Amino acid sequence: MVCLGNICRSPLAEGILRNLAERQHLPWHVASAGTGNWHVGQAPDIRSIAIARQLGYDISGQRARHFKASFFREYDLILVMDRQNKADVLRLSTNEQEKEKVALFLGDSEVRDPYYDNDLFEPVCREIEARCQLLIAQLEPKAPL
Fold first, then answer.
1. pTM tops 0.90
2. Catalytic residue status for 58
3. Is there a catalytic annotation at residue 9?
4. Pick the catalytic residue: 3, 8, 125, 132?
5. What is the DSSP letter of 8?
6. Which among 136, 124, 140 has a CA at the least distance from the CA of 9?
7. How many whole angstroms separate alpha carbon 71 and alpha carbon 94?
8. Which of 18, 82, 113, 131 is catalytic?
9. Which of 4, 27, 23 has its CA nearest to residue 81?
10. Active-site position among 9, 18, 47, 65
11. Per-residue pLDDT tens for 55-80?
12. What residues contact 137, with CB distance under 8 A and at least 6 apart?
């Protein structure tokens, strides 16, 4: 999960998807990072922590990381929150296989950045939660018949 500073949207997506995957006993490694390095080592924005907690998720222990090219080798799927994040991540890719791993988190739409608007945190969190539930359904390995 990738956004700009790794303190609002991508930590929400990381924490929610990780929690949902654990509930389904899926052996997924879910992480997040930012395309910018301003907040490396910091906890998520207190507003993200608060809204996640209201919905039953604890993201307070997560820490911001900076997206690195090595993540293309470490992860099977890299979901970005907006088109600028996608462009920034794709600039670090070195081949088509790496580029194919990158997609917008919402498919064709962007996740709005709530950083400058307190009122966006709840709808953004709910949007992320709904998408994470769909991702579980779409990506969960099906048992053989």
1. yes
2. no
3. yes
4. 3
5. S
6. 124
7. 12
8. 113
9. 4
10. 9
11. 999 999 999 999 999 999 999 999 99
12. none
